[in-house]
Amino acid sequence: MDYKVSTGKDGNREFVSIYFEGKRYRLFNGKSIGLSLKTSENLELLKSAYELKLMEGWRPKKKKSKPEQIIELSFTMRLRIQSQEVQNGRYSHHHKRDCRWVVKEWEKYSALNNLSYTILPQISPGQLEAFVKQSKWSPRTQKNVLTTLRCLVKDEKLNQIKTKRTKSVLHKPIKDVPALLDDIKEFNDALYVCCLLTYGCLLRPHQEIRLLKWEDVDLDRNIISLSGERNKSGRNRIVPLPSYVRTELSSRYTKANKYVLRNSLTPYSRDYIKVLWKRYKQQSTILGDGITLYSLRHTSALHVFQKTGSLQKLQQVMNHSDLTVSLTYLRGLEIQQLDVNDLPTL
Prior knowledge:
The chain is mainly α. The protein folds into three domains: 3-55, no CATH class; 75-159, Orthogonal Bundle (DNA polymerase, domain 1), CATH 1.10.150; 177-331, hpI Integrase, Chain A (Orthogonal Bundle), CATH 1.10.443.10. It has 14 helices and six strands. A hairpin with a 2-residue loop joins β1 and β2. The model has no long low-confidence stretch (mean pLDDT 86).
């Protein structure tokens, strides 16, 4: 016998209990077997009726579970959750910062427009566009806000929004790099080493150079090795050391576990290099307009391309994950596309 029938009491209510296939069923009436009889009327009779039905082959049916009700989260909550995933993930400092800022701006906007608890399907494209195209933001900021929103939430409404095309910033190559480096060296040695590595090895200053340790520098093999977790692309990177960079690093080498830039067991803070450059720029008499710390990397990229003529080598030395990123570097620089000899003659 694959079942067991008994009676029981739940407070003041009596019931027939059937144990079948590891589950216990409580029955308070005979509806399951077509009887108009309640336990309160005749418990023993109802028990006998169920026993008879069980002998005839009837079995209790499992209750149909109610389908799970899917509750759609508000757009604000979706942004918060996705932003938190970005914060916990392996993304750049700038992307994490942008996500946090965009979410805060949306929270302020949604509170003013009664959208804090509204789901995305109920938010019109016009309301989203009004958020992105706020007059307090420049076209570049509007584009960044839209890009960040699209990264956090995939939806066709966001894809329909168009922002003004921003003008490309023309990064001017530095005409006299040695003179600039000499001037920076007189101002601050740490900034000088940072700029030297930015130009000579095309490392990124605020992360790769700031966190560079002497154990990453192999002066015997003339290379710098960075593990994937230490650079933006996430891939292992080996960079050759030009002789002028090696000479400067050799004279400064201390212990392997120290950070190169500070020669200490602790690195500089994230904003320290930016502050140093700002101070240098304020007192410099040779720094041209529009020249930034990254202009050294842009200038070096131009020189690499002029020497090799290879986009693949440029991509490799700049550690770009996509060739199109390397192309944007060349588009933004003053590169002479045509020579007079390239033009047709009569």
